[in-house]
Amino acid sequence: MFISYSWLFQLTHTNLSAPEVKERLTMVGLAIDAVEGHGDDAVLDVEVPSNRPDCLSHVGIAREVTVIDNGRLYLPPSEFIETDGRSADLTSVEIKDPDLCPRYAARLVRGVKIGPSPDWLAKRLETIGQRPINNVADITNYVLHELGQPLHAFDFAKLGGRRIVVRRATPGEKLKTLDGVERTLTGDMLVIADAEKAVALAGIMGGEESEISAQTTDVLIESAYFDPNSVRQTARQLGMDTEASRRFERGADCEGLLRAQQRCVELICELAGGVATEDAIDVYPQPLSERTVDLRPERVTELTSLTVEPAEIVRILTGLGFEQKEQAAGRLSFKVPSWRIDVEQEEDLVEEVARHTGYDKIGSELPPSNSSGEYQPTEMKQRSLRRALNAFGFDEAISLSFIQQDARFELIPSLSGHENDQPQLANPIIEDAAWMRSTLLPGLLDSLRHNFNHGIRDVRLFEIGRIFSIFKTGELPQETLALGLVATGGAIEEGRAQSERELDFFDLKGALEAAVDWMNLGPLTFAQTSARHLRAGQSALIESGDGTSIGTIGRLAESVAASYKFRQPVYVVELDLGALLSGPAKLIQYSPLPRYPSVTRDISLLVDRQVALDEIFAAVNNQQVADCRSVKLVGTFEGGNIPHGKRSVTLRLEYRSDERTLRDEEVEEYHSRLTARLLDTFGAQQR
Amino acid sequence: MTDSQNELSPEHQVEAARKAFEQEFERFARFTPRDLEAAVAEERALAELRTRHLGKKSALAATKKLIGRVAPDQRAAFGQLVQATEAAFVQSLDQAEQSLKDYIQNERTARESIDVTLPGRRPRFGHRHPITLLRERLEDVFVALGYAIEDDREIETDFYNFDALNIPQNHPARAWQDTFYTTDGFALRSQTSTVQIHAMQRRGVPVRMIAPGRVFRRDTPDPTHNPMFFQVEGLCVDRGITMAHLKGTVAEFLRRLFGADTVTRFRPSYFPFTEPSAEFDFSCFKCKGTGCRICKNSGWIELGGSGMVHPNVLRAVDVDPQQYSGFAFGFGIDRMTALMYELDDIRLLFENDVRFLEKFE
Fold first, then answer.
1. Which of B124, B208, B221 is closest, CB to CB, to A371?
2. Which end of chain B is more exposed for a tag (fewer CB within 10 A), N or C?
3. Which domain holds residue B326?
4. Which residues of B touch A493 (CB under 8 A)?
5. Are residues B170 and A347, on separate chains, in Cβ contact within 8 Å?
C-alpha cells in the first residue's frame, strides 16, 4: 500500500518527518521498507497485515499516526452540494443474494461533465502509483485510497431498465470487464446486473459496456459491501487482483460505505459538475449489531508485563476509533469501530494497547523454569546413526517429500502390499512430483544422478525421512520413518585423486552394521532375498535384532540402473528406521577376562557355493564343543583350482578352557571331532 | 709349529703378524663404499679380517705363547709389544667398522626416508546436512533451557493444521494456492504449529517444547523459495507467562546461536494463532548492525513470528486462558541456514550435491 506523506500530513498535521513516520509505523506493526522521494512529496510503501484492511487507506494509516504522536485526525470536511430528486424515483436496487451482498447503496449524479481531473488530484494519484483516467473514475479511486471503500461509477444511461440487480451469475454468462477481457462466469460468482445482463463483477471490476465515457452525463455511484470469501474465490478463479478485490476480500467497512459515497458525490459535484440526488438507495436488510469488548487493565499486565494507566489505555483506543462506553467495576468497555473487523475479544485490545505503548517497553527475562529438557526418545540414537554413517563416508541428503509415482521399487516390508497406496497431491506445484513418497530411493537416486551429471562418481549418501502410505481409504496416511542409503564408485580417501578399490555390497553392509552397533542396537541379520529393484543374487532381506524384517539391501537391478543411465554398480539400502529403533538394545554383559591361554586352529572347507557362511557358523555353534570359544572367517576363495560350483571357506576356531591350560592332545581331539562333523554336515572336503 | 716360525724370533713374529695385518687391512683403510650393498659386504669382510688377525687362531695370538722363548729381562717389553700391536689392530678395525656402520646407517635412513607431505591415510568422512547441523544445535540450546523436543505428523487434518490454530475458515492460508492437500482432503502441514496442539493434548499444561520439522507450502521453487522447508516452533504455556518471557527466551537463544552481543527487536504483527503478535529481528551477526549485504543494509535480520498464544488456541485444547498464558514463536531453519552460510540459492539444500554438502562440516 503506497501512502503519500503530504496526503497523510493533511489528515494528521503530524510533527513526524517521513523517515520518522517510517520508523514509528514499523514499530506499531505497519512495516515500511522504504521511503521514496516523489517530487516535493514522499511515498511510504506500507506492508499492511492481512487482518487490517482498514489500513489500506490514508485515513487508516493516519489514525495510527495520530495515536503515535498524540495528535488528532483532520477528516475532509463535508461540502455543501446542490441536490435534486430522490434516487428511488429514478432507479431501483434489488439484492437477490444478500448472503454475498449484505449491503448496497446507489446514488445518482446527473449532468456531469466528463473530463480530465484537476492537477492536484491527478498528481496525488500518480504519486501513489495510480494512473489518472477521467475526473469521475479518478474521484472513485481517490476516495478508495483516502477512506478505503471501493466505489464504482456506472454510466447510468447504459444500465438496461435503469436499475441494479445484485445476483449470482447464470452459469456461462459472459461479461467483458474494464480491462477488455471477456470473462465466462460460473453460477457462484456475484455480479451487478441491470434489468437484462451482468454489468460488473461485484467487488472486483466494472464492465466495459457501462464504463464512464466522454459522453456520459448521468452516473450511478455504487458503494457496497461484498462477502470477502465470495470476492476472494471469484478473483482467484478469474486470476484477477484489483484495488477493490484486495479490500473486499479482507473485509470492508460495512458501516462506512455511505460516508464514502457522500464524499465521492461531493467531489464529483465539485470537480465534474452535476446535481446529486438527495439521498441514496441503501439496501441493508440486516444491519450489523454493535460490538462491545471489555478490557481489564490488569489483563494488559498479565499478558505483556506492561503496566498501562487506564487513562492511557483510553487515549490509545479512542485515538484508534474505539468509543468508551460506561465503565463497570475494574473494567473498561469499548465499542469496536465498524472498520476494525479484527477485534473480537479482550486480548485483541491488549495488543492495541501494547503495540502503541511499545513492544520495546516490555522487559526481557527468561520464564522461571520448572521443567527439565528432553530430546525425542530416539534422537540420541539417530545422532549416533548419522555420526556412524558419516564415519563410513556417507553424506546426509534431504530430498523433497514429493516424487512421481514409481512402481520400480519394492517397498520396505512394513509397507509391502501398499504399492498402489501412495498419497496423491490434489494440487501439486512441481510437474512430475504429485505423490508423497513411499520410498526414499527415488530421491536418493535422483541425487546420485545429479552428482554423476556434475562429474562426481564416488558418492555415498544417506537420508532419514518419512515415507507415506494409505493403509485405509479416507484415513490419515501411515507415516513411517525410513533410512535409505546409496553407495557407488570407489572407496575414496581424502587428498587422493583415485581410490584404490571400488565399493561393493560388503562396504554398504559393513557401514550399516557398524551404524546399528553405534546405536547400541542388537545385530542385524541378512538373508538372501529377491526384490524388484535389486539385482538377483546380490540382494538381502534385513532383519533387526528381534527377527523383524525391516528392509532390503543389495545392488540396484540392471533395469532400474539403466533407467537412470547409471553405468557403474550402485548399492542401496532402505529400511524401516522406526522399527529398527524400537528393536532390542545390544546386550552388554561383563565376563571376566580369560585366565588361561587360548589355542587357535584354522580349517579350510571345500563346500558348495550355495552354502551360506551363516549356515556353517550355525553348524559350528550347534556342535557345542565345550571349549570352542569362537569361530571367525579367515577368507573365502573360489576359482583357481577350486572346482566349479564350489568354494573354499577358511575358518579360525579358538579353543580355551576357563579351568586350565588346554593340552595339545585335547585341542587336537576337539578340532578333529568338529572338523569331521562339519565335513559330514556339508558334504565338504578338507583342503 | 713350522720351521720358519721356529727360525724367527718372537719379536719378529709379532712384526710379521703386524705386517700381514697391515697388508690386508690396507684396502679397508682406503675403502669408500660404492653403495649400501658394497658396504654391507665390506662389513662382513671386515668381521672376517678381525677374526683372522685377532681370533684365538690368529698369528698374533700365537705369539703370546712364545713368551717363554724371550729372555727374561725382555719379557715385559715383549708383553707390551704384543699388547700394543693388538690394541693397534683393534683400533684400526674399530675405526673402519665404525665408519662402515655409519655409512650403512646413513644410507639406510636415506633410503627409507618418506615424503611426509604425502596425504595421510584418511578415509573420506561424510557430512551431516546443514539443516541437521542447525537443528541439532537448536535442540541442544532449547533442551538446556528446559524444553522438550516434540514432533508429530506431516500430513494433517484441518483441525490440527488450521482450526485449532484459530485460522478462520476463509483464511487465505487454507486456500489451494497456499496449502498442499492430498486427494483424500488432508493437508500437508503448513507450519509446525500443529505440534503445539498435539503436544498440549499429550502433555497438558504447563508445557515447554520446541518442534523442528518439515513443512510444506505451495511456493514455486526459486532461489528464495522451496515448496518444502524446515521450521522450528516453540511453545511455553504456564501460569503467569508474559511477553517479557517471550522476549527473554528469544533473545537468549539468539545470543547462544549468534553470540553474546546479539540484540533482538520485536515488532507488532499479525498471526491468527497469537494475540498480541510480534515479529522478531536480530542484529546482523555479520556486520553487527552497521549494515551489509546479508541484512540488506538495515542492520537487522528478520527471522520469525511470535506472540502470546491466542486464547482460542488454548480453548481448543481445553486450557483455560484465564488461568494459563503462553508464548509461541517460529522461524525457518532453512532461512537461518541460508543466512548463516550466505547461500545464494536455497534450492541447493535439497539437490544433495556432494560438493555442496561437504562445505558445512
1. B208
2. N
3. 130-360
4. 119, 121-124
5. no
Q: Is A351 on the interface with B (CB under 8 A)?
A: yes
CB-based contact B175 A402, cutoff 8 Å: no
d(CA A512, CA B91): 67
A376 touches B at CB < 8 Å:
yes
Structure-block grid coordinates of residue B40: 654391507
Contacts of A189 (CB under 8 A, 6+ apart): A168, A169, A201, A202, A230, A234, A237, A238
Task: Compute the C-alpha angle A675/A524/A629, nearest 5°.
Answer: 30
CATH of the domain at A671: 3.30.70.380
In this structure, how many other beta carbons lie within 10 angstroms of the beta carbon of residue B260?
6
Does A544 lie in the same domain as A417? yes
Contact A130, A7 (CB under 8 A): no
Gap between the Cα atoms of A649 and A604, Å rounded: 5
- Cβ within 8 Å of B, A 422-451: 423-430, 436, 444, 447, 450-451
Same domain for A661 and A625, yes or no, is yes
Global ipTM: 0.90
Number of domains in chain A: 5
Q: Give the domain-ending residue among B54, B83, B111.
A: B111
What CATH number corresponds to the domain at position B245? 3.30.930.10
Residues B321 and B243 both lie in one domain:
yes
- Grid cell locating A461: 549418501
A239 and A327 assigned to the same domain: no
Domain boundary among B56, B81, B111: B111
Instruction: Express each pLDDT in B132-188 by its tens digit.
Output: 999 999 999 999 999 999 999 999 999 999 999 999 887 878 888 899 999 999 999
pLDDT tens digits, one per residue of B160-176: 999 999 998 878 788 88
Residue pointed to by grid coordinates 697391515:
B22
Give the phi and the psi of residue A331 in degrees, each rounded to 5: -140, 150
Last residue of a domain, one of A242, A265, A283: A283
Question: Which residue segment(s) compose the domain that A237 sits in?
Answer: 87-283
